């Protein structure tokens, strides 16, 4: 009851003062004495109304009259409720009492609770199945996988590598700490010292090796050079020192060195390679003075080096001849080589063949040139077409040849058969009559046919002549009987047991291409097959009975096609591809024999996780999820009570 | 005169280092290696025969319990440790490599109804007939300490099963209702019921860890969602389901071991039709456990045998039994998928190889190649009648054998009757119910 309602009822009370029989609002007021005065009653009612404003709960307090049972879907308690008792209710017949109505209400409430729970469940189920459905692709992939290696995810090795262990180690005892500090504190200077020592050792050994190397050199000039170099170095060093100590002395020294240099420059060493000499050599053609200067220098040179002239001359001569040779030799050599080439029979042959080829290639090119120039674009396309035409013509020729030979062959057996077996001949002719073909070509068959016809139906032959002609025209190409006979003949041949040829060429005699094993050997190693049992269709000329089915083999053969396969060819293919290393390379063998599921001994395989697959597993834990769901818990606690 | 000489390039036959493989020149011309199919067929036949010759699956029997073994549990981190609970309230911890009992605890009065290990492997939980849930340390007590549980929770009703969450400190018990417990509290954080009956087993889903499955004595299997604290769906079968097991590789697949001799593999999203009905046992199936690869499962039965079923086959590929093994109550597949353990009525735990003819120990590469090749050949020629016959042949105890015959006759009679009924009634009036749907009574939303 709302506060508003209470206020309204209060107002109503004040208005209806005269009314004695008020409908009783509250169960508490039932105990009131009716004989009291009006004022007292009014007062009482007011008090009660105010009272009811403040503690409404008392109004709903239920008095228990029997052992209370909890509300569940199976039990319905008959506890009283705060329902108004209306006069009309009391006057009505007993069947629709308020008590039954409350029970009904409660029943409805239980029912609705049940429905709500079911809705809850259905929603939860659809959510869960949605969550589960994201596993579908992964599970499908796993089921179809060629190979699964468990454990699925890459696992960290259980034993940590030694570096990790060492780096993670810490000194604990004082002794350990002391050793640790000793080891790590003095590391730097010790390292440097060691490096220095190493450098010294390296240098020492280097110099030693160098000295030894130099010691071994027997060239005096080299040693002189070395000494000179050493002297020069020393002089330079001395000079530098002198410059620092005594600059005037250093200047003198510098002059000395300059003098020495000039003397050196003036020597004949640089007569033609110097700057001056080079410039003069260039200008000598145009400038007389320069020319003269050069001449002078040359003369001086000759003069000074007279003694050496003999040696120079010889050298020059030699050089000259060499030059001449160099000039001429290549040509001569080339010529000789050409000749040699030409003389070499191998080369010659190839050369000539090449030339021939070239000639042949050139000839046709030259010939069609005038025509080809006009249609140069389409030339290439036309050629293959012509080739194809040629091929086709060849095929046709061959085909016609074959046909002719076949005809000849067919005529012969027909003849022989006629002589052998007249009854079969009759049947044959009957068949032939049905097809009506090539009657004129084969006189023997024609004879038999006519004989046969004469026996049973001589009349209609003439009458059907035009029709026969039409049929003959229609079936001009195919001869069913001959095809059938041929097929049967082939089947008989195929079913005959074959001779076993055990001849190995090359054993006991020479082998090689084009050599055939001797007749003696062939006779010895050719095992003739025994005559098989008579064919079932031996006496049935119009039938071919296949004798392929072997009872003994059938016991080993698969009778029903295995489940996922749909056609027997698929199954045959799986069986016919060999797996073993006898027929496959090593790699293929490994690939073919991989197992579907691989497990490692001693490795724990954990249930698959969402993280392994790359799915996002829900971040919040299941426990926290429950704890955030207090409503549900209280509901269930209530149920438990 | 010219002298002809053989000249060869050493590159073709000399190996570069001694660690290289020797080059063996081979000619793979198929003309030189004829009869591929017959030769491989013979090899496959021999491989199949050898497999049967070497099929010796029984490894060890762990003897020590003084009453029937009622429950088994694996250590999650250690392959060698196994826990077992017996009908006299005793829990034993075994070392499989030594094949010895390393610890014995008198955990409960009456049966040890359920046992499970914590996901980290530091402790384990037991429930017993004395209405208690006890948590124990995995390591034994120190010197001078007494063997005492870490925590004991006294409940109002008997708990019949327990399972631990795969990631968090939560476990679930079953009995009158399914209770979810926080390890830190003595009251369940959530209780779930659907009707009133005794629930015999509860199992957490190892992949989607908030899912639970339970089976009750009124023939139903109920799935729960722990997060929303509500049951999801209920399927009612012909007969009571003893236990269920979730597939560790496929989140929505579980298998139920039923009293009607069959096992039913369900997709939990479509409970009205099981994915597969596995039938071969001749008595009630009491326990089931999946291989960690999720490709096979093992079932223990009241008919004194255990069978291994491929998940996608309705018939078992293997049956294990011994003369002394009685009704098998519990079975577990070890986490490396190589072994199977079963606990039975006559107080023993037996250790079996999961693959009967597998060679134990380290294999050389050639052995491994030969093994793989033989396996492939067996697979390739498995449909050929002779090979099929040899591969399928198993010795069975007379009781099981005769029961199989008997049940075959009964089944045939039932089928015939049904066919006749359909034949002699108005077409369409008698519906044809498939074998899969036959055993499902109803699915309740």
From TrEMBL, chain A:
One of its GO terms (biological process) is rRNA processing. One of its GO terms (cellular component) is small-subunit processome. Signal peptide: none annotated. Keywords: Nucleus, Phosphoprotein. It comes from the Eukaryota. Residues 376-407, 439-454 have a biased composition (Basic and acidic residues). Residues 19-42, 355-465, 614-641 are annotated as: Disordered. Pfam families: Utp14. Residues 615-632 have a biased composition (Polar residues). Its main location: nucleus. It is found in: Nucleus, Nucleolus. InterPro entries: SSU_processome_Utp14. Belongs to the UTP14 family. This is UTP14C small subunit processome component.
TrEMBL record, chain B:
It comes from the Eukaryota. One of its GO terms (cellular component) is small-subunit processome. Coiled coil: none annotated. Pfam families: Sof1 (PF04158), WD40 (PF00400). Pathway: Protein modification; protein ubiquitination. WD repeats lie at residues 62-104, 278-319, 321-362. InterPro entries: Sof1, WD40/YVTN_repeat-like_dom_sf, WD40_repeat_CS, WD40_repeat_dom_sf, WD40_rpt, WD_repeat_DCAF13/WDSOF1. GO terms for biological process: decidualization; female gamete generation; maturation of SSU-rRNA from tricistronic rRNA transcript (SSU-rRNA, 5.8S rRNA, LSU-rRNA); protein ubiquitination. Keywords: Nucleus, Repeat, Ribonucleoprotein, Ribosome biogenesis, rRNA processing, Ubl conjugation pathway, WD repeat. The keyword Ribonucleoprotein applies. It is found in: Nucleus, Nucleolus. Residues 354-440 form the Sof1-like protein domain. One of its GO terms (molecular function) is ubiquitin-like ligase-substrate adaptor activity. Part of the small subunit (SSU) processome, composed of more than 70 proteins and the RNA chaperone small nucleolar RNA (snoRNA) U3. Component of the DCX(DCAF13) E3 ubiquitin ligase complex, at least composed of CUL4 (CUL4A or CUL4B), DDB1, DCAF13 and RBX1. Interacts (via WD40 domain) with DDB1. Interacts with ESR1 and LATS1. Part of the small subunit (SSU) processome, first precursor of the small eukaryotic ribosomal subunit. During the assembly of the SSU processome in the nucleolus, many ribosome biogenesis factors, an RNA chaperone and ribosomal proteins associate with the nascent pre-rRNA and work in concert to generate RNA folding, modifications, rearrangements and cleavage as well as targeted degradation of pre-ribosomal RNA by the RNA exosome. Participates in the 18S rRNA processing in growing oocytes, being essential for oocyte nonsurrounded nucleolus (NSN) to surrounded nucleolus (SN) transition. Belongs to the WD repeat DCAF13/WDSOF1 family. This is DDB1- and CUL4-associated factor 13.
């Amino acid at each position: 009851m709302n506060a508003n309602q209470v206020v309204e009822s209060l107002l109503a009370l004040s208005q209806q003062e005269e009314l004695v029989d008020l409908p009783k609002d509250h169960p508490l007021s039932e105990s009131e004495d009716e004989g009291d005065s009006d004022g007292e009653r009014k007062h009482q009612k007011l008090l009660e109304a105010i009272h009811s404003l403040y503690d409404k709960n008392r109004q709903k307090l239920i008095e228990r009259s029997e052992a209370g049972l909890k509300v569940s879907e199976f039990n319905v308690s008959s506890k009283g409720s705060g329902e108004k008792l209306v006069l009309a209710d009391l006057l009505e017949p007993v069947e629709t009492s308020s008590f039954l109505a409350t029970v009904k209400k409660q029943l409805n409430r239980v029912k609705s609770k049940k429905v709500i729970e079911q809705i809850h469940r259905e929603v939860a189920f659809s959510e869960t199945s949605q969550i589960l459905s994201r596993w579908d692709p992964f599970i499908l992939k796993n089921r179809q996988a060629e190979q699964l290696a468990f454990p699925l995810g890459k696992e960290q090795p259980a034993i940590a590598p030694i570096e990790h262990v060492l780096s993670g180690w810490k000194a604990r005892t004082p002794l350990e700490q002391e050793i640790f500090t000793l080891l790590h504190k003095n590391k730097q200077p010790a390292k440097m010292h060691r490096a220095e020592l190493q450098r010294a050792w390296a240098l020492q050994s280097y110099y030693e090796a160098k000295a030894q190397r130099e010691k071994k050199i027997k060239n005096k000039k080299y040693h002189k050079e070395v000494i000179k170099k050493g002297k020069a170095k020393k002089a330079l060093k001395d000079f530098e020192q002198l410059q620092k100590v005594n600059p005037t002395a250093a200047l003198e020294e510098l002059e000395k060195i300059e003098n020495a240099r000039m003397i050196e420059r003036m020597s004949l060493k640089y007569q033609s390679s110097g700057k001056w000499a080079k410039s003069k050599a260039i200008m000598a053609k145009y400038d007389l003075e320069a020319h003269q200067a050069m001449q002078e220098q040359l003369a001086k040179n000759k003069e000074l080096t007279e003694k050496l002239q003999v040696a120079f001359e010889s050298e020059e001569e030699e050089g000259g001849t060499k030059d001449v040779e160099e000039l001429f030799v290549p040509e001569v050599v080339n010529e000789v080589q050409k000749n040699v080439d030409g003389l070499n029979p191998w080369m010659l042959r190839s050369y000539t063949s090449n030339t021939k080829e070239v000639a042949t290639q050139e000839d046709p090119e030259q010939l069609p040139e005038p025509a080809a120039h006009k249609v140069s674009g389409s030339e290439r396309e036309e050629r293959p077409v012509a080739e194809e035409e040629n091929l086709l013509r060849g095929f046709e020729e061959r085909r016609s040849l074959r046909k002719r030979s076949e005809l000849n062959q067919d005529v012969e057996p027909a003849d022989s058969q006629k002589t052998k077996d007249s009854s079969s001949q009759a049947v044959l002719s009957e068949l032939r009559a049905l097809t009506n073909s090539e009657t004129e070509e084969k006189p023997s068959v024609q004879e038999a046919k006519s004989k046969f016809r004469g026996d049973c139906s001589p009349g209609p032959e003439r009458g059907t002549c035009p029709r026969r002609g039409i049929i003959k025209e229609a079936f001009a190409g195919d001869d069913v009987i001959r095809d059938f006979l041929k097929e049967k003949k082939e089947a008989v041949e195929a079913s005959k047991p074959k001779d076993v040829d055990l001849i190995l060429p090359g054993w006991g005699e020479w082998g090689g291409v084009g050599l055939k094993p001797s007749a003696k050997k062939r006779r010895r190693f050719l095992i003739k097959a025994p005559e098989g049992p008579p064919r079932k269709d031996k006496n049935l000329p119009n039938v071919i009975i296949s004798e392929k089915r072997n009872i003994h083999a059938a016991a080993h053969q698969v009778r029903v096609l295995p489940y996922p396969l749909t056609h027997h060819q698929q199954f045959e293919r799986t069986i016919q591809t060999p797996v073993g290393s006898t027929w496959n390379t090593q790699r293929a063998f490994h690939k073919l024999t991989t197992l579907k599921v691989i497990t490692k001994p001693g490795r724990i395989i954990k249930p698959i996780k969402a993280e392994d697959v790359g799915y996002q597993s829900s971040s919040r834990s299941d426990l926290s999820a429950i704890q955030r769901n207090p409503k549900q818990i209280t509901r269930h606690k209530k149920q438990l009570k | 005169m010219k002298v002809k000489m053989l000249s060869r390039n050493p590159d073709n036959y000399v190996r570069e280092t001694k660690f290289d493989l020797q080059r063996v020149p081979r000619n793979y011309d198929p003309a030189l290696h004829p009869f591929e199919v017959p030769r491989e067929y013979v090899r496959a036949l021999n491989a199949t025969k050898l497999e049967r010759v070497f099929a010796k699956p029984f490894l060890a029997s762990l003897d020590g319990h003084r009453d029937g073994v009622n429950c088994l549990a694996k250590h999650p981190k250690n392959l060698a440790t196994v826990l077992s609970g017996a009908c006299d309230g005793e829990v034993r911890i075994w070392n499989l490599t030594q094949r010895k009992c390393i610890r014995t605890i008198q955990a409960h009065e009456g049966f040890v109804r359920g046992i499970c290990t914590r996901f980290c492997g530091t402790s384990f939980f037991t429930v017993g007939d004395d209405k208690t849930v006890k948590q124990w340390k995995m390591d034994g007590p120190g010197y001078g300490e007494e063997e005492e549980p870490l925590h004991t929770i006294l409940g109002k009703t008997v708990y019949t099963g327990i399972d631990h969450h795969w990631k968090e400190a939560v476990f679930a018990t079953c009995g009158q209702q399914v209770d979810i417990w926080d390890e830190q509290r003595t009251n369940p954080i959530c209780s779930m019921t659907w009707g009133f009956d005794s629930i015999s087993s509860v199992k957490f889903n190892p992949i989607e860890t908030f899912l639970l499955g339970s089976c009750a004595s009124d023939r139903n299997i109920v799935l729960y969602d722990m997060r929303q604290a509500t049951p999801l769906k209920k399927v009612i079968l012909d007969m009571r389901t003893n236990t269920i097991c979730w597939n560790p590789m496929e989140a929505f697949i579980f298998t139920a071991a039923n009293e009607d001799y069959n096992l039913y593999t369900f997709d939990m999203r479509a409970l009205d039709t099981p994915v597969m009905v596995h039938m071969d046992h001749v008595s009630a199936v009491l326990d089931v456990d999946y291989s960690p690869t999720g490709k096979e499962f093992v079932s223990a039965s009241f008919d004194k045998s255990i069978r291994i079923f491929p998940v996608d086959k309705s018939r078992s590929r293997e049956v294990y039994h011994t003369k002394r093994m009685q009704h098998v109550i519990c079975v577990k597949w070890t986490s490396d998928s190589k072994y199977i353990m079963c606990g039975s009525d006559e107080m023993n735990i037996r250790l079996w190889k999961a693959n009967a003819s597998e060679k134990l120990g380290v294999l050389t590469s050639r052995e491994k190649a030969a093994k793989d090749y033989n396996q492939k050949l067996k697979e390739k020629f498995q449909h050929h009648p002779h090979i099929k016959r040899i591969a399928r042949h198993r010795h069975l105890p007379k009781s099981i054998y005769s029961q199989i015959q008997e049940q075959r006759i009964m089944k045939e009679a039932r089928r015939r009757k049904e066919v006749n009924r359909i034949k002699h009634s108005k077409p369409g009036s008698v519906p044809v119910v498939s074998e899969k749907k036959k055993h499902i009574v109803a699915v309740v939303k």
